Amino acid sequence: GDLGALQARISVCRACPRLVRWREEVARTGRRAAFADQPYWGRPGPSFGDPQAEALLVGLAPAANGTNRTGRMFTGDSSGDFLWAALYRTGFAARPTSFAAGDGQALTGLRIVAAVRCAPPANRPTPAERATCAPWLQRELELAAPRLRTVLCLGSIGWDGALAAARAVGWGVPRPKPRFGHAAEATLGLPDGRSVRLVGSYHVSPHNTYTKRLTPDMLDEVLLSLRG
Ligand code: SF4
Description:
Blueprint (H helix, E strand, L loop, with lengths): L1 H10 L5 H12 L19 E2 L5 E5 L7 H4 L7 H12 L20 E5 L12 H18 L5 E5 H14 L16 E5 L5 E7 L4 H4 L6 H10 L3
Parallel strand pairs: 2-3, 2-4, 4-6
Antiparallel strand pairs: 1-3, 5-6
Bound molecules: iron/sulfur cluster (SF4).
């Protein structure tokens, strides 16, 4: 369908020279010793989850040895481990862990997308790279729109990316721009008159989870609120 065709187009995108170099260099030579014998995906990360989802989760960008290795969003690093455990506790994920294709993992009612699809050096995409990748997120929003009720954004880059993408596809976005925060909310207006709830969450990065700025309970709470 349209969603599969979109992922196929994304997976061969080479629009950001710096990110293409980095994702392929890590895949070739920059591997962690623990993964040295594994094949690396080394390409843009396709979105993952329920094609009929009423909720989208917008992440920042793949990790060099995570999604860039496994080819699945939030899979293969500690950020992902924290997220998948929460997705399982809250009933969105079929399993508490995510490894690779064929592991039985699946999402119901939720689809994971990202503001940037290729692993950036130091986990930091440039503003130009964020802008270059934005049309892929815009297309995800448009394809999800008929069933969409909520969008959960991890971190301020996910929040800003979702707001910019919503505005670019003609959805009503509040002005001034709603401020990001954990459990922050904003209402987006769809062209057909329905509204979509935008919800913020601190990112599941080790920086936030090890310091307990984001706890499992805090993440569970925002995930459960997606169904509210
Ligand atoms: Fe293409 Fe996005 Fe990857 Fe840039 S970050 S190369 S736009 S998929």
